[in-house]
Amino acid sequence: MTATTVANVVASGLDEQADKARGIVASAAYANGRRVSNFPLHDAGAWSRRPGHFVWIGLHAPEPTLLAEVREQFDLHPLAIEDAGKAHQQPKVERYGESLFIVARTAQIVDGHIAFGETHIFIGRGFLVSVRHGASASYAAVRERYEACPTELARGESYVLYAVLDFIVDNYVPVIERIQDEVEAIEDKVLAAGLQRTDIERLYALRRDLLRLRNAVVPLVEVCRRLEHPEVLEIDAPMRLLFRDVTDHVRRIQEDIASLREVLAFAFEASLLIGQVEQTVTTRRLAAWAAILAVPTAVAGIYGMNFDNMPELRMAQGYFLVLGFIVTVCITLYLKFRRLGWL
Q1: What mean pLDDT is predicted for residues 181-203?
Q2: Distance between CA atoms of 108 and 94, rounded to whole angstroms?
Q3: Which pLDDT band, with edges at 50, 70 and 90, does 164 fall under?
Q4: Which of 109, 228, 250, 337 lies 20 to 30 Å (CA to CA) from residue 172?
Q5: What does the alpha-carbon distance between residue 293 and residue 94 come to, in Å, rounded to a whole number?
Q6: What is the residue-averaged pLDDT of the chain?
């Protein structure tokens, strides 16, 4: 290896590290479904305008200056660039001239809780730029998968848009499965031993997370529905079916979320009912013992009034008769309450 080649390799590696530090994960040009070049950002616009080519750029939490460069290369609308720099957008699709700006929410399980992120996508003739913020899986896996299938990637930037959206929706599934496992554990605990305070707090946290997940998922139905129409994005009919497939996946996720929220609601209601039943049983038990103890209390109260004219006080067997009466009545009440299930 010559000194010039070594220098070029070193320079390329330094440039790659600098790009990652700025937020550029990958930037490549494709023709006929195959990667033909990795380029610096200032060449992106030129590559996107070549006939039969499109560029795919991936950014992660980019600096404002980097977004400004992207805007310059693809002549993007400043309002779209401003939105892409903020990580608090609602899922939507907006058209700015010849390009689209799409926002999708992402979700991952982090430390036992759902962490949310966002992906902002710019797409136009010859280019697609994805901007990730917050919790989100890298789209490097999507790039690698479809670079291994040139016939699919040859369908252009609209197919990459479908692949990214489908990947986002697929990543909702592990989140749903993790929550489902927790929900089933809570259900078993409700029926076995009842819920403790920590379990109820976790139940509320899961319902809150599911609500936030639903708010992230549901708007994607409208996003994909709009992408199916040619006036929004110029794609052929088979590609529209792919976006419809993403819509179907989103609706299934939506149904799963609704089912889990109902199960959590039922679990909470069941816990309340079980608590009420246990409280009723305790109240009945206390009432039964109170009724039994009322008999000796009443008799002792009568004979403790200290009146002089009480004939029973002069009976030789009076003490034993009173004790026998108290014991008989108490035993009778005890047996009756046992038959009623109160004791």
Answers
A1: 75
A2: 26
A3: very high
A4: 228
A5: 77
A6: 81
pTM given for the model: 0.75
- Local confidence band at 23 (pLDDT 50, 70, 90 cut-offs): confident
Total count of domains within the chain? 2
Report the distance separating Cα 181 and Cα 258, nearest Å.
Answer: 15
Compute the average pLDDT of residues 186-205: 74
pLDDT at residue number 165:
92
Residue 53 lies in a domain: yes
Task: Report if residue 242 sits inside a domain.
Answer: no
Boundary (domain end) residue, out of 151, 181, 215: 151
Structure tokens at 229: 């129409």
Residues 6 or more apart in contact with residue 170 via CB below 8 angstroms = 249
- The answer to whether residue 62 is domain-embedded is yes
Q: What is the model's pLDDT at position 64? A: 86
Q: How far apart are CA 138 and CA 25, in angstroms?
A: 9
Give the CATH number for residue 134: 3.30.460.20
Alpha-carbon torsion angle 244, 27, 154, 239, nearest 10: 10
- Cβ neighbours, 10 Å, residue 222: 14
- SS3 annotation, the chain: CCHHHHHHHHHHHHHHHHHHHHCEEEEEEEECCEEEEECCHHHHHHHHCCCCEEEEEEEECCCHHHHHHHHHHHCCCHHHHHHHCCCCCCCEEEEECCEEEEEEEEEEEECCEEEEEEEEEEEECCEEEEEEEECCCCCHHHHHHHHCCHHHHCCCHHHHHHHHHHHHHHCHHHHHHHHHHHHHHHHHHHHHCCCCHHHHHHHHHHHHHHHHHHHHHCHHHHHHHHHCCCCCCCCCHHHHHHHHHHHHHHHHHHHHHHHHHHHHHHHHHHHHHHHHHHHHHHHHHHHHHHHHHHHHHHHHHHCCCCCCCCHHHHCCCHHHHHHHHHHHHHHHHHHHHHHHCCC
Which residue segment(s) compose the domain that 29 sits in? Answer: 1-151
pLDDT for 13: 41
| Nearest-angstrom CA–CA distance, 339 and 199 | 36
Is 176 contained in some domain? no
